[in-house]
Amino acid sequence: MIEFRNVHFAYDEKEVLRGINLQIDYGETVVIMGPSGSGKSTILRLLLGLECPQKGDVIIDQQDICNLPEKDKREIRKNIGMVFQNGALFDSLSVGENVGYYLFEHTRMTLDEISEKVEKMLGFVGLDSDEIIDSLPEQLSGGMQRRVAIGRALLSTDPKIMLYDEPTTGLDPQSGANILSLIKKLHLERNICSIMVTHQIADALQVGDRFVVIVEGLVVFDGSLDELRESQELDVLNFLAPFRESLHGVTNKRFI
Q: What is the span of the domain harbouring residue 256?
């Protein structure tokens, strides 16, 4: 289980999170939404132990990640995969080298063993290894780069938790749909807990079991799609107002 207990966080004098309380169980797909600057991406950084709150606790598997030595933090991170907004691939490495990077650096596997795993992973994320394995990231479309990034995260950590920071931002509709399908595939086939940060409401509705809305550093909603539709919380109504039609048009978000 993941738990935020009364978490406060600020960058210098700018308060970003103001008493966040949140619990996420393994196997859930939780979408964190809110206006730009509301603190959504900061939650992911806190989960990874890249930042620590000035007040409150971030608990993963009953351990406060910020009270652990770096060695133990690395052990927790082995269960967490992270996909950044721009993919964050190494520009100077080929697709195959990017996906297999962790195996090259941290295992004693042979080149043939790593190559086999890389090819299988590229197939899993819907890419033809024969066509792209020797390509550089800049030679790929944005959607392909994101899928490579997901493959790298899966092969690096064999995660129980996947974190996605605006995974479809900047992509064309078809590429975005491919990424959302892959997130659902990971949930259905591997029961991976997914936490996705986005301001794209239509994308959120495609994948979420549960929805958290953060406004000005506060959780103003936490619940199901039906509860989201019926919420009368003013901050929620204001945030969702431009998206009301799509919100009420969804009937079965998992298989749209």
A: 1-77+210-256
